[in-house]
Amino acid sequence: MIALALGCASQPSSFATHFAEGERAVSAGRHGEAAGAFDAASHAEAPRRERDHAAFLAALELARSGDVAGSTARFEALARTHGEHAVEARWQLVAMDVATRAPNVTGELDDFIKTFPNDGLAYPAMQTRLRMARDAGGEAEVLAVLRGFEPVLKKTQSAPRIAYEIAESLAKLGKLDEASVAYGSVVERWPYPGEYFDYALYRKSEVDETLGHLEDAVADLDRMLVVLESSVWPGTYIRPRFPDAGWRIAELYRDKLGDKKRAITAFEHYVDMFPNDIRRAEALWQAAKLLSTNGDENAACADLATLVSKDPDSRYVPCVTAKCTGVVRPKNSHAPDRCHAYILR
Fold first, then answer.
1. Residues near 199 by beta carbon (within 8 Å), at least 6 away in sequence
2. Pairwise CA distance, residues 345 & 336, whole Å
C-alpha cells in the first residue's frame, strides 16, 4: 500500500505533462505540435502565472508554424490581461506588423513606447522607431520623432535614452554647439551612476574637440573619471568608457595640446587607474617614449622596468631590455625573443 501511494504521488500533473510535450516538440522543430501541447497546458490545473506562460509559448509556436491568425488571436488575448506576459504579447503583435510593414506601424510603435516607457521592451521599440524614421526622412526626421517623445516621457525610465539620442542626433546633423549642451544636460540630469553618464561625457569630449575646445574636451573626461570607484569584491565598478577616457586624456595632451609633461602623467596614471587593463603595458611604453624625447632616460627606464615587472610576457619586453641595460628579461618569460621594428616606430 505504501509503495502504491508513493507511486501515485510521483505522477506528474497534467500541466507538467503537456508542458514537457511542448518542450520536446520545440526541440524537434515541430512547432504546430508544440503549440497544441502548450495550449493544453495553459488550460490545465496550475497557477495562473504558469498557465499564462504556457499560453504565451503556444502563441509563439503558432507564429513559428505559420499560423499567423491563430498566434495573433492568442497574443491579443494575453495583451488584454494584466499578467506578466501582457506587455511582451503586445510587443509581439507590434513586431509582427513591423515585419509585414503594416500601414500604421509607426503609430503602433509610438503608442507602445508611450504606454510602456518603463518596460525593457521600450528599448527595442525605440530602436525600431528611430530606424524607420531615419529610413523615411534621415536624421532630421529622427530628431523630430525624439523631440515628440521628450515632453511626454520626461518622467519615465525612457527619458535618459531619449535625451542621449537627441544629443547624438544633433551631433550627426552637425549642430555641434547644441550637441555639446545636450550631452552635458544628460550628465546633469542623470549623474553617475546614470546609465548614460560615461557615454555622454565621452561623446561630449569628442564634440568639444571638434569644436576646438581642447581643454574642455579634457575636462569632460576628467569629470567622468573623478567618480571612479575601487572594489574589494569580485567584479568592478569600472564603466565601459572609463578606460577609453583615461587613454584619450593622455592622447589629447600628447597629440592635440602638445603638453608632454601632462601626457606622461596621464599615461602613468592610466596604469594606476586600470591596473588590469589590456593597454597597461602600452601606457608605460608611451610614457617612456615621451620621457626619452625629453632626455630623461633614467625616468623612461624606470617606467619600462615597471612594465617588465607587471607584464613579463609583453611584446615590449625585448625592446625594453635592449634599451635599458639595467632591466633583465624575467625567467620563464614568454615574450618574443626580439624587438619588432613596428614597436619602435
1. 164, 240, 241
2. 17
Q: What pTM was estimated for this model as a whole?
A: 0.89
Say if residue 243's pLDDT is above 70.
yes
Are 110 and 128 in contact by the 8 Å Cβ rule? The answer is no
pLDDT of 300-332, one tens digit each? 999 999 999 999 999 999 999 999 999 999 999
> Which amino acid is it at 250?
A
- Which residue shows C-alpha cell 593622455? 250
Alpha carbons 293 and 74: distance in angstroms, whole number: 72
Q: What number of residues does the chain have? A: 345
- Picking from 8, 11, 32, 7, the residue whose alpha carbon sits closest to that of residue 22 is 32
Neighbours of 238 (CB within 10 A): 17
Torsion of CA 89, 90, 96, 98, to 10 degrees: -150
Cell of 63: 507564429
Nearest Cα residue to 284 out of 294, 272, 296: 272
CB 56 within 8 A of CB 90: no
